[in-house]
Amino acid sequence: MPYAYIANRTDMLNADKLLNYYDENIERISEILKIPKEDIPRNVALFLEPGEDCSYNREERRIIYRFKNEGDLLVDRGRLIHEAAHVVQNYPFKIHQQHPCWCWMEGIADYCRVILDPDFNLENDLTHEPEKGYKEAAHFLNWLSKEYTSLISDLNLLIRDKAEVLNNHNQIFDILLQKNFSQLKREYIYSMINKQT
């Protein structure tokens, strides 16, 4: 059974290349997250449509991949890595944007993109507030994973197994690293400021 298929099969020039890109990276993502390959959801429908952004719907097992025009189908294709990471994460529930795990779930997905998409740059326009968004969280996780090498897979499992009882960022990092998020954030900001000078 394939990992994914193009659900709205068209004669788009690069549709098969995009599908191959997904297949090439989905197992790499499972290695990053330390999820067995046999646990990767298969037969995910990939819908190609004009527009912006991408999204994954777990219940429908569907990725919507939007593009500006058919000739640009492979432009910024690393967005597909982010959505494929959500496929591998396969959390058994939805995490809403106000939940403290939301930014870390999204940060893990962008972290996978950092590792697998050489064109993806996290360094632009950082506010150094990792709890505020995808790229910010990914940058923080990338910084922190240099010291704590199992952080990404451990955080992914913590979210999958305990998100429903996690109430704040300090609790998450206390469980993971026995450290306070506020202190880690101060160290992170300090290191980023020193890096710029």
Comma- or semicolon-separated keywords:
197 residues, alpha/beta, Zincin-like, 2 domains, four-stranded mixed sheet, 7 helices, 4 strands, 48% helix
Write up this protein.
The protein is α/β, with parallel strands linked by helices. It folds into 2 domains: 4-89, 2-Layer Sandwich (Zincin-like), CATH 3.30.2010; 102-196, no CATH class. Helices cover 48% and strands 10% of the residues. The chain has helices spanning 15-33, 79-89, 102-116, 134-145, 151-162, 169-177, 181-196; strands at 4-6, 44-50, 54-57, 62-67. It has a 4-stranded mixed beta sheet with strand order 1-2-4-3, with helices on one face. β3 (54-57) and β4 (62-67) form a beta hairpin.
What form results from the Cα inertia axes?
globular
Tell me the Rg in angstroms: 17 Å
Q: In this structure, how is the largest beta sheet organized? A: 4 strands, mixed
* Overall number of structural domains: 2
Strand order in the largest sheet: 1-2-4-3
- Strand percentage lies at 5-15%
